[in-house]
Structure formats: C-alpha cells, structure tokens
Amino acid sequence: MKDTSNRSKAYKVFSMIVLIILALLFLFPLYWIVTGAFKTGQDIYATTPAWLPSQWTMDNFAKLFDRRSAPLFEIGALVGPTVPGAIRWLVNTVFMAVAAMLLTCITAAMAGYALAKKRFIGRAILFSLIVCAMALPKQVILIPLLKEMSALNLYDTLWAVIFPTVGWPFGVFLMKQFSEGIPGEILEAARVDGASEWRTFSTIVLPMVKPGIGALAIFTFINSWNDYFMQLVMLASNSKYTISLGIATMQAETSVDTGLLMAGATLAAVPIIVVFLVFQKYFTQGITMGAVKG
Amino acid sequence: MKKMKRFLAIALTLAMVLSLAACGGSKKEETTTSGSEQTQETTEASGTSISLWTYPIGGWGDENAVKELTDAFEAETGIKVTVEYLAYADGDDKVNAAITAGKAPDLIMEGPERLVANWGAKGYMVDLADLLDDTDKAEISPAALSACVTGEGAVYEYPLVMTAHCMAINKNAFEEAGALQYVDLDSHTWTTEDFFNAVAALYAYYGDTVAAVFCAGQGGDQGTRALVNNLYGGTFTNEDHTAYTWDDAANIKALEQLQNTDGITFDASLQGGDEIVKFYQGILKMGFCWNIAQQLDPNAAGTGAEKTITGDDIVFMSFPSETGESKLCGGIWGFGIFDNGDSARIDAAKQFIKFMCDSEHTADAVRTAKYFAVRDTAEGADLSGIWADEPIMAEYNKLMPYLGDYYQVTTGWAQARTSWWNMLQDIGEGADVAETVSTYMAEANAAAAG
Amino acid sequence: MAKQPKSAMSRALVRRETISGYLFLLPSLIFFVGFVIIPMVICIVNSLTDANMNTQGLGNFVGLKNFIDLWKDDTFLEALKNTFVIVIVSVPTVCAFSLWVSSAIYKLNGKLLSAFRCIFYLPVVTGSVAVTVVWKWMYDNYTGVFNYVLKSTGLIEKNINWLGDSKYALWCIILILFTTSVGQPIVLYVSALGNVDQSLVEAAQVDGATNFQVFWKVKWPQMMPTTLYILVITTINSFQCFALIQLLTSGGSGTNTVMYYIYYTAFKLTEKAGHFGYANAMGVILAIFIGLLSALQFKLAKEK
Q1: Does residue B219 have a pLDDT over 70?
Q2: Looking at chain A, which residue has its C-alpha nearest residue C117?
Q3: Which positions in chain A touch C243 (Cβ < 8 Å)?
C-alpha cells in the first residue's frame, strides 16, 4: 500500500514537471510573437536567437501604422478621418465578429428551440442535413458562394464573410442540444395558459438557454475573428480587410519583414486574448455545457 | 450572470453602432454605383472613379509614392484612382477571384506573362492598339513592345519600364573567404568555373549553405531559370515560343552539378522573396533573385543602398556562363485594362495610361518604379537622363546589353512555371535529374500544345 | 369513436407544430439554405460540367468526366491522402493528449487549474494567421529557434529544412494543428472528469481496483459522450486547416490537401486556373467523405 502511494506520488511529481514544460512550450509562440514585435532588425535576423529584445523598439509598430491608410469608417457620405490601415482592419474585424455573433445567436436560438421541441414534418431530415453540413469545409462551396455574393452585390463587403458564418449550422446544433433540456411540462403549461408561441419562446425558453447563448456568442466571436479563408476570397480592397487578412497579405509581399509581421500578429492576437481572459469563466462553462448536453 | 448581462449589453450597443456604420456603408456603395451609371449615360469622363491594382513593381508597391502620381493625375483630369496593392504570392488569386465575381479592376500593372499571355489571351483585356501611334512604336524599345503584342497584333500591355534580372553577391563574405578573385567587379561578369570555385571557397570557409536554389513556389523563379540556363548555355524555350526545351543536355548538366555541389541547397521552404531576405540577412552569400530595385533598396527595408542589414557590401552580378557573357531574363512592366464593359471607365483608364506612360509625367512614373524606361522620349520629353544623377543605375546599365529573349510569353507559361518549381523540389530531394526533368517538361509541353 | 377526435386533434397539432416550427426556423434557414445548401447544390451541378471562369451560365454537361480525370490526377490523389493523414493522425492524438492533460490537472486547486486550462487554450484564441506566421519563423531553416536549439544541444548536426523537406513538412503542419486543437478538448475532459460519479469510484476502490482499472472500467464509460463530441469537433477542425497550408508551404513539400487544391485549381494562375467544374468535383468528393464520416460518428454517438 505504501509502495503504491509512493509510486503514485512520484508519478504526480513527474506529470507536474511534464505539464509545466508543456505549458511553457504552448506559451512560447505567443511570447515569440510579442517579443518579436519589439525587436530590432538586428535581433530578428540574428542566427543566434535573441531570447529577449536586446533593445526594445517601436519601429515595427511605426512601420505597421505607416504602411497603408484608410478612412476609420464610412457611414454613408460621412467618411471618417484617415487612419493607418491596420486600425481600419481592426475596426472591420470587430464589426464582422460582432455582427456574425449577433446574427448567429438570434437565428440559432430560435432554430435550436424549434428543432428540439417542435414535432414538425421534415424535422429528422433537416437535422441530419445540419449534422452533415457541420463538418463541411468552406472550400467545398467556395466557387458557387463567390458567384452568389457577386450576384447579390456583396462581393468585397464584410457581409460576404458574415453571412456564410451565420449559415454554418454548428450554432443551430449547439442550441438544439441546450433546448433539449427544457422540460416539456413548462411549455405545455404555458400553452394551456394561452401564451403565444413567441411569448413562450421569449419569456420561458430564452432565459433557460441563456448560458448556451453565451457560449455560442463567445464561440462565434472567436471563430469569426480567427477565420481567414472566406476573407481571403471575398474581400479585395484594403479598406475592407480584416486583421488576419492584412497580416497574411503582408507575409505574401515580396519583401518579408518578420518584425512587421510580429507587430501585426500582436495587434491581431492581443485584443482577442484579452476578451478571452475576461470572459474565460463563461467560456469554459459554455463549452462544457454544450458538450454535456450533446 | 450580472457580468454576462453587462457584456451582452455592451456587445449589443457596439453592434448597433457598427451595423449603422455598415448600413451606411452599403448605402454609400449604392450611391456611387448609381453615380457611375450616370456618368456612363453622359459619357462625361471627369468625376469618374477607376481602380488600379498593382503588383509591387519597385516603388509602385509603396502607397505614398503612388499617391503622388495618382494625385497629379486627378488634378489634371478629375479622375479619381483607387489603388490596391497586390503581392506576388497571392495577387493572381485575388485577380482571378475578382474576375470570377465580375469585379475585376479597371487597370492592372504587371508584365506580359500575365497581362498578355494569360488574361489577355483568355479575352479579359482591352486591346490598347489605339493608344500606340507610329511615333510611340518608334520610341518604345522593340524588344519590350513585341512582348506586349500578341501574335494577332492585339496590345494587352502598354509598357512603362524594363530591367534585366541578375544575381548578387555579398562582397565582404567573398573577401573573407578569398573568393573575390573569381569575380570581375568592374564588368560584373564571371564564368561558370569562377562560380563553382567561389562556391567551393565560400563553403570551405563557412561550412554551410552559401546559396539556395529556392523552389517553394513560383515567386522569383526567373532567378533559378537564368542560373540553370546560363551555366552551360541551355535554353528554356525554343525561339518561336511554342515549346519548352529545358531538357537539353546543358541544362541537365547544370542541374546535376548544382545538385552535387556542397554549399548549394535546393530549398523548398524559400521563394524568391524569402531568399532575398536570407541574403539581406547575410546568411546566404549569394542571391539569385536580384535586380536594380533591390540593389537600390535591398529587401525594400530602407536601410541603405547596396548594403545588407549587417552592413556588408552587395555587388550585383550577371549570371555565370562558360564565356562570361550570359543571357539575362528581362522584366517588362506596364499597364493593362480589364474589359468591364463600361466605356467611360475604359476611356478614363486609357487616359491614365497615356498620362503615366506617354507624357511629361512619365519621368516620375519611371522614377517611382526604380527601373529603366522602355523609351527614350515620351511626347517630346527626354527620358534618357532620368537616372543621370544615380551612379548605381549607371553602373547597372553595364548589364543591360545582356538582356536575353523574353520567352515568358510562351503558351502554357503558367503550367511551365508550376512544373519548374515542382521539378526543382524533386531534384533537391535527390531524384534523378534527367528523368525528373523530362517528366515535368512533358507536363509543360502538354500545356503548350493545347 | 373515441379515437377519431384524438387523431384529428393530433393532426391539427402536427399542422400547428409544423407551421410554428418552420416560423422559428425561418431566419436560420434563410442563411443555412442561402449560403450553404444552395451553393452546395450548384457545386454538385457544376461538378458535372466543364464550367470555367469564362462561362456565363452553367457550362456544358460532361457527365462524370471531371471525376474520372480526378481519379487519374496524381496531385489530387496525393492531396486526398494527405488530408486523411492529417485527420487520422491529429484526431486520436488530440483526444489522447487532452485526456492525459485533463486527468493530470483536474484535481488541482482552482487557480492553478484555470491557469493550465487557459494556457492550453491560448493557441486557439491567438488566431490561425498569427499562429502561422510565428511558427513559420520558428521553423525557419536558417534562423529558426528549432534548428538553433536542436543544434546547440547537439541533437542534430545540420540544420533541418522543416518546411522544405517532404519528410518533415506534413508533420510540422500537423504539430501546429495539434497545438491549436487541444484547448477545447482539455476544457471538456476536465469538467467530464469532475462530473464522474464518485460513489461508483469509491465502490470500485473498496473492491480493490487499481487506479488504472478505476479509470478504464468506471470513469471512461461515463465520459463516452464527451469523447464523441470531442471526436466530432476535432474532425471538423482538422478539415478546416487551410491557412496553415496556404501560408506555410503553398501545398509544396508533400503537404497539399484537397482544401488547398480546390482553391489552387480555382484561382491560382495555372493552366487549370478557373476550371470550376474540376474544382467543384473535388469539393463533391470531399463532401461525400466528410458526410460519411460524420454519419458514422453520429451513429456511434446514438448507440452509446
């Protein structure tokens, strides 16, 4: 007995050490991005890596902000002041992620409830369709989608990126799993009381699936912030770029400037990491619930 | 939960503000499109807005420099030009996606292999023959002009600048390794023997890769083609540009020798642009993807002409050949117009080309590109003295006589480029040269045939 | 007699349920049908034609020619193979790794636990493009940290060209994919392990079961639903890896995948550029494989 407890203690220490090493390895890319953003050309191009910037510099950010310019926003005839392109990319990214998040949450909450609680004709088929489409990479429908967007006059607008994200049925699937947990008796009672369908949904269903909506919101936000493929195909002009697309374009240019890329990557990663850290608790809660219900 | 509520509330208001912004944005688009329809009806050019997509051709990839030119154009004609900057790594994809969506730009700046042999041949471009009168035809260098004209006589590119692509060496590294004896710094030429001796000396001194035959993609592949072709006098295509001939014994000998030389790596993680960086960092001692724009501003990093980041001197060199006289690949860049079916915008785009390529403003356009003008005079303005105050340009002129055949307009060119870098990757991994070459060249010739 | 009104009522009920069900589904269906189903249908129709960039309408019907050509296209077959290697390697390793990490951390105190959870989740939120550019730098043949560390510790003698050598490139990409995939499974397993019925565990321990036995016989079956969910999302994730290929190798060095090859065929300036029928045929094949895979996974999920 003592022997096994010693062994399990040794194993615990060993696994803790491995864990800490792994954690450091997982942190390293992020560390490398952020420090790289403040390194001088000499440090970055040194054959012996500089673990810390030998001299902290803002040059990379200066270059990033000096690169392209675009109006901060365009509302009708009202055009915002000219700002560095990277700032506009951030604005675009925030707009895109928030719009995708809101539309997804609204549509998915309604659809998820219907799929879970309504016994309508064609439900089984629709659900299998959703399940199959969930894993579908967007590259598959790339060309028809591009033609469709151009026909709808949405090519080179952020909507061309937002709408397919909303159409992706993962949200519906997730919300269906959450809505399954709503007891049928409550809904029945509401119906007996003469509540309208919409009232039942808004006053009974919505509050009960709120954690699910929260999870889906954060999930969609991060996903669309980090998506890249749709943007690559659908967005053509610099003032419509998102931050991911902006960095990818910088990496594609003839003269590769690693410091500049790291500055861009910092600008892309830090805001979303802050969002994640602030809402971390809801996030972990949300994704766990999604799975347990699933 | 309270926090969650607050978060949702903030998100909602933020979203509302932003969607307002976006709705406004789309409304604005409607007004501009209706605006352009109006101009179409009245066929009044002023007030028109046209778009230009440009690849990074010297300073034409730099927003501030280009803005000066487009501002000058707008001041004179009232036509607004919106510019988008493409990269070689994914610029083609962007243009093709835009063509698919029916939203191709009005103007595009690149070379004949794209404008003439590809988009032009596929029927997306406007014939610019009416922009070229007899004076223009006499003024423009015949080599440059012929590359911009198809077999049927359609002109899909109006050329602005040209250069010869070359290679470069790190002079300090050569000096330290005792390899400077193999290069002629005055004529900027060397023989094949000199080249391999220099590689051996550098490798003996540094014990590591000194030059990379880069092949991660097609970017900058004119460098690897010129290197291989020149070493023993091979050719890439036949003279009438109908078939690929890079399986001749001279090329195979060159590839085999490169494959077996210590210090030279076939690097499938680098494209031309990456190789420039490694050379600029001082890691590679030779760069095969070089030209005058790089010489003036290495890696476009703004750290001074003719210097690596470590402060070493860069010397541009012709590619080595058995006699020392090599055939350099040319670059010819100019403008093409996509046929968007809107005559007002096509006219405006033509005005733009006239303004940049054939007027008193041509000197500025050429200077921005950091290359040589394709003509000596434009509408009476003398262009021969543009670079008189720039000694590096004058020195570079020594290479211009070596400018070889512009074979990049051979049919099936896009496939040939793809086959070339795929072939280099295989050779780099030790595949049999003769066999690999013939497989990949067959692929390119199949494309050339049909 | 008594039966009839009931069935009439249920018919009315079915109708009412159907109408209200579809009303609730309507907003979602607009997006789902408009931007997933319709393009998918067009994709299938297009895959049977010779449509290209010039084609205005649908193009000429060519039957199964595109599919037959694909079967003879070595590049496509290699891409298909690589796609499956990525999925088959990354899904089980992600599951196993995250299970191990979660079982090692789930009993730690709250702060430490959430710190670990965050760290393993960070690569997910950092974003694919930012992650890709930094890994490209780390893998660099000449100035990357990997070669530096391995060389200075004497593990390798010569620099390894990680992304330029077909022996390594695909594995390098799988490694990046791995770091960006384990975050969510770890979160899920931690909570699943926390929710395991303790009375069963104690009963097993009283019966003299070893830790290992407790894990496999008691905990593992209870975590089955979580595992299946993780399998599904990891599979989805693995099929979405496009940025890694496009930005790191452009499909060279033996790393082509079907997702990249579709894009390449459609938009790269090659002789095949704009062979939309051909590209769509690839999409159809990929969709069929994915459909089968998800159907299989969900069948498994239902049986459990």
Answers
A1: yes
A2: A284
A3: 228-229, 248
> Which whole number is the average pLDDT over B171-195?
94
Q: Which residue of C has its CA nearest to A46?
A: C143
Which CATH class for the B44-163+331-402 domain?
alpha beta
ipTM over 0.95: no
Q: Does B206 touch chain A (CB under 8 A)?
A: no
What are the tokens at A29? 């890319």
Residue from C15, C17, C22, C31 whose CB has the most chain A CBs within 10 Å, to mutate:
C31
Q: Quick one: pLDDT band at residue A291, thresholds 50, 70, 90?
A: low
Nearest-neighbour CA in chain A from C90: distance (Å) = 16
Query: In this structure, which topology does domain B166-326+411-449 adopt according to CATH?
Result: D-Maltodextrin-Binding Protein; domain 2 (3.40.190)
The residues, ordered by sequence, that sit 6+ positions from A202 with a Cβ below 8 Å of its Cβ are none
The domains of chain B are located at: 44-163+331-402, 166-326+411-449
CB–CB of A143 and C279 under 8 A? yes
Contacts of A163 in chain C (CB under 8 A): 31, 34-35
Amino acid at A84: P
With CB atoms and an 8 Å threshold, state whether B269 touches C271. Answer: no
Partner C contacted by B216 (CB < 8 A): yes
Distance CA(A161)–CA(A96), nearest Å, equals 8
- Which chains would you list as touching B if contact means 3+ CB atom pairs under 8 Å? A, C
Q: How far is CA C279 from CA B438, C86, C193, C248, in A?
A: 27, 21, 44, 22
Q: Residues near A105 by Cβ (< 8 Å), separated by ≥ 6?
A: A171, A213, A216, A217, A220
pLDDT in tens, B267-320: 998 888 889 989 998 899 999 999 898 899 888 777 889 999 888 999 999 999
Token pair, residue C219, equals 């905990």
Query: What pLDDT digit, counting tens, does each position of B306-349 carry?
Result: 999 888 999 999 999 999 889 999 899 999 999 988 899 999 99
Distance CA C189, CA C105 (A): 10
What pTM does this model have? 0.88
Quote the pLDDT of residue A254.
Answer: 55
The closest of A74, B399, B125, B114 to C273, measured between CA atoms, is B114
The full DSSP string for B386-424 is: TTTT-HHHHHHTTTGGGB---GGGSTTHHHHHHHHHHHH
Asked if C35 and A133 come within 8 Å (Cβ–Cβ), the reply is no
**Domains of chain C with CATH codes:** 74-303 (1.10.3720.10)
The pLDDT value given to residue A38: 94
